[in-house]
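Batch job 17 of 40 flagged for manual review because the log was empty.
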Amino acid sequence: MKSRTRFVLLASVLVSITAGVMVSSALGAAADDTKAEAASVLVETKSVQQGEIADRLIAYGSAVPAINASMSMSVQAEGRVMRILATPGEAVHTGQTLLEFHLSAAASSTYSQAVSALKLAREEQIRTVRLLEQQLATREQKALADKAASDAQNALDALEHETGGKPQQTLTAPFDGVVATIPVAQGDRIAAGATLLTLTRTNGLVVTVGIEPSERGRLKLGQDVEVESLGDAAVKHMGKLARIDRSLNPKTRLVDADIAIADEMLQGDAFRAGIEVGQLRGWLVPRDAVLDDDEGAYLFQVDGSKAVRVNVKRIGRDEETAVVDGPLDVRREVVLLGNYQLENGMAVRKTPAEKDKEDVAKDKKTPSEKKP
């Protein structure tokens, strides 16, 4: 009985020792794996290739009326503003009433005098014709009467063109547009020819941007431009460079340039403009892949499971891509994420997503391409 008890105790001890050894081995393997992972850097990579992107000159400005897109409206007679039926910034349509204007008593009197003068001149013209038929007037007198009637008619036509021939004038929109300014108030007495309001065509806006004087030589009329609203990045327009100043703006000390846009814009909206001045050619890599230190610009490529530093020279960039020049290997992928932690020769491991991509690529190989 005692022998059987001793055997059971011995077996229990042996099982405990075996289990301990197995646990220790597992912990050791896990520790080795942890050390291996700690000694490497998790990275995300992307293939590299040569190509070109647009070289864009960036400038900032706002939407303003073009020089030939505005019209000042006035009445060539003294009078008073009776009603204003529009407000600055309002969109109006062709024929819409904008303002009512009443001529002054003096202007109305001038028009009445012109009507009376024409009536008298025509009566005299008719009387002279009758006298000539009776041989009681000369041809010279008839010529003078004809000229007087013609002059009176021209004077009345000029007044009607300026004042409309009515004591009450109604100003209407000559085209679809936006009311830019109304420099008068209801009830104001206005001199002849004074501006009553300014109207801008709906599609008569341009984006005026400021260019550094040193960059002016890169600009040419007709270059493609992409403009993006600073208030809403989703609002983008394509346009053409339409005007380049030859003098500095005294306020900004920049060279003003106009960009013609076919689309409708909000006057005063601020824009970021990318003027395409050429093409940049070289290695195309993700913008975040290029780093800088005391030696200059550089990036990392992956050779097997090691990071290889490659010194490069920046040629240019856009929002997502950088164009660089340097001894890159097209067979090696460039490190996009995790590059800040790397040093030359450091071990790397790819993200699970990158490994999945590689596995899929291997599975797509034909049987003849797979190794036995």
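Reviewer: the log was empty due to a logging misconfiguration, but the result itself is present. Confidence is low (pLDDT under 50) at residues 23-37, 366-372. Unflagging and moving on to job 18.
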